[in-house]
Specification:
By secondary structure, the chain is an alpha+beta fold. The chain folds into two domains: 69 residues, Immunoglobulin-like (Sandwich); 84 residues, Alpha-Beta Complex (Sufe protein. Chain: A). It has two helices and twelve strands; from the N terminus they run E-E-E-E-E-E-E-E-E-E-E-E-H-H. A hairpin with a 2-residue loop joins strand 11 and strand 12. The longest helix has 18 residues. The protein is rod-shaped, with a radius of gyration of 42 Å. One of its GO terms (molecular function) is FMN binding.
Amino acid sequence: MKKGKIIGIGIISALILPTTLNVVQIPQYSNVAIVEAATVKLSQTVLNLKVKQTYNLKIIGTTKKVTWSSNKSSVASVSTSGKVTAKNKGTATITATVGSKKYTCKVTVKTVYADGTYTGTGIGFRNGTTKVSVILKNDVITNISVLSNQDTSRFFNYAKPIVIGEIMDSQSTNVDAVSGATYSSNGIMDAVANALSKAKN
């Protein structure tokens, strides 16, 4: 056996670590609330109303002061709180002003009844027919004429001016019958109501 030196051959692996470690912390947002900006708008941008109808417009998405106005108050007016009142047939624009911003609503007003002359019939005494003519203008009954009737003359002629006068004054057929001439009164009221039903828009 020969004597000699033993030479070890191998691979030495070394792991070099940095002396300092910079740690970057990432902020957490789990507790942050995300708030969306509210959209300011009118509750309605188009309205269709009949004469004398009302509607309460509202501005949504702000608590700031609102100034209301109408470009044609004769057709549709608006109060300081946004209440729109239909007055006459036509169109109007309601504007809500908030700061420098303006929001509009187009209002179309129609009459309950179409203008014109209409005839109607009702049942009077002993099922007799009463026929009337009614003239309408801008939802106002301007005239009522009796064209014919089959009632007893003295009862009918007694009821006629009273009932027609009350209908004209109240602009309604919901009036009291004349005592002693109930059938004649009802015949006139029913005839006028029948004429009005034909005039509705």
